[in-house]
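If your schedule permits, I should be very grateful for your opinion on a structural question. Please examine both parts with care and let me know of anything in them that strikes you as inconsistent. The record follows directly beneath this note:
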Amino acid sequence: MIKGVILMNDKGKPRLVKFYDYHPAEKQQELIRRLYAVLSSRAENVSNFVKVDSLFGSDARLVYKTYATLHILFIFDSSENELAMLDLMQVFVETMDKCFSNVRELDIVFNFNKVHAILDEIILGGQVLETSSSEVVKAVEEISKMERAANSIMAVPSITGWQSR
């Protein structure tokens, strides 16, 4: 099971945090700080796979990848394959690239609802739902169409002279 997905910048500022196990906000902040400490202390030429038993309990693992100024972290248990998680991370990044045309940190900050929708189409409740980035893009486009339709219904001007009696 996937325990969490975190996107943080190279300064340790979280841009997206999604835990699939409950953790109070204070514990989440402490976990993020400790994960950043682990990442920032690692050399560039070492493996992207880390055991994080001390943070998330026995058999917890972390796979991370750095894209420009963003660190993408997937935390999972031993029921998941490390290489499959790395591949799933690639699907997530490819999907964001398709949706934002070369995703940047600011895209994640200003379009966090869309990024959450992308992640929810790939992973739900800690389980992998979809591994095809093109299928995820279709689903996210459908969600965007529905949101635009809902917003256009709400944008209909009210009739000023009409009142209920």
About this structure: Strands lie at 2-9, 14-19, 49-51, 61-67, 70-76, 123-124, 127-128. The chain has a mean pLDDT of 88. Residues 95 and 101 are 9 Å apart (CA to CA).
